[in-house]
Amino acid sequence: MASTSTGRGRAAPIIHCPQHPDAALVEDYHAGDMICPECGLVVGDRVVDVGTEWRTFSNEKNTKDPSRVGSAENPLLDGSDLSTMIAMDPKQEMMTDEFGKPMYRNRRTINSSDRALINAFREINQMADRLNLPKMIADRANTLFKQVHEGKTLKGRSNDAIASACMYIACRQEGVPRTFKEICAVSKISKKDIGRVFKLILKALETNVSLITTGDFMSRFCSNLGLPLSVQKAATVIARKAVDMDLVPGRSPLSVAAAAIYMASQGSATKKSEQEIGEIAGVAEVTIRQSYKLMYPKAHLLFPEDFKFATSIANLPTS
Q1: How far apart are CA 6 and CA 15, in angstroms?
Q2: SS3 sequence, 184-233?
Q3: 94-114, pLDDT tens digit by residue?
Q4: Which of 10-14, 24-28, 159-163 has the lowest mean pLDDT?
């Protein structure tokens, strides 16, 4: 065996066979031995395997589920969702503390609070998947739900309603707002219940959300309608100018956005009806028509100057 010096002056041992110093040693990973291939001498033992230890934790044998660790850690649950299964000897009595309660508790005896959290987190993640939202939004909604759950200010309210309202708040706080109707479509709760719980959560957590504007929905609605970028830009300008000129007082941003898209599409070669826009935006046709009537008299001021008309403003629908 020989040694060499490192940059700090320390000697780093180099393992080799005393009979065959030039032979490349073979490592036996199972036994942890370093073996000389020439004479079979075990030169080193208890060698630590630094390679990856892939294991399968799936219950099904045919399923390939390589993982180095167990299930993902969830910091929102007590104990970070980590637990230990303790095997009990059926012949021995269960160990108890001075109050007669079991000293050890297995994962299968999860408390009701954690069970409610797990079910709510599962529902939130499913809603996020159906809405094609990133994990960041779901994590934000999970945190909001845990805050409400720990505060115990909404006792008696359905956990599903709270989860849906938390998803709605998380979307608005992260700058990707969704409408109540979109949340209702992927949950089991009515729009009225979500709206009621939404207000209670804002009051309980003493938080707020930014106001919804027409631009928050414009790109998504136009994309779903298959409209070109030029129409989307025109609709965004029309909606912004209509709000700035106070042409649509009291109208929701959704209805203004839908009316702006209708006006821009009617002036372009890619025309969309009120029904088509209403189905995507979740706004009734009569609501779009009413907002459009308020905007139509100033249409010549609303369109951007560089917009290429396929239909002139004079020939736009009057209602």
Answers
A1: 16
A2: HHCCCCCHHHHHHHHHHHHHHHCCCCCCCCCHHHHHHHHHHHCCCHHHHH
A3: 566 666 666 555 555 567 778
A4: 10-14
Instruction: Give the number of other Cβ atoms within 10 Å of residue 35's Cβ.
Output: 19
> Quick one: what percent of the chain has pLDDT higher than 90?
42
The single residue listed with the structure tokens 């009734």 is: 284
**pTM beyond cutoff 0.70:** no
Q: Answer whether 118's CB lies under 8 Å from 163's CB.
A: no
Residue 152's φ and ψ, nearest 5 degrees, are 55, 35
Give the chain's mean pLDDT. Answer: 81
- Residue pair 170/141 in contact (Cβ under 8 Å)? The answer is yes
Query: What are φ and ψ of residue 260, in 5° steps?
Result: -65, -40
* Triad 109, 115, 118: Cα angle to 5°: 130
Pairwise CA distance, residues 167 & 145, whole Å = 9
Token pair, residue 98, equals 């001075």
Specify the higher pLDDT residue, 283 or 61. Answer: 283
* CB < 8 Å & 24+ apart, contacts of 302-309: 302/237, 302/238, 302/241, 302/242, 302/260, 302/263, 303/234, 303/237, 303/238, 303/264, 303/267, 304/233, 304/234, 304/237, 307/230, 307/234, 307/264, 307/267, 308/230, 308/268, 309/267, 309/268
Encoding tokens for residue 72?
Answer: 């993902």
The predicted-structure confidence for 280-291, as pLDDT tens digits, reads as follows 988 899 999 999
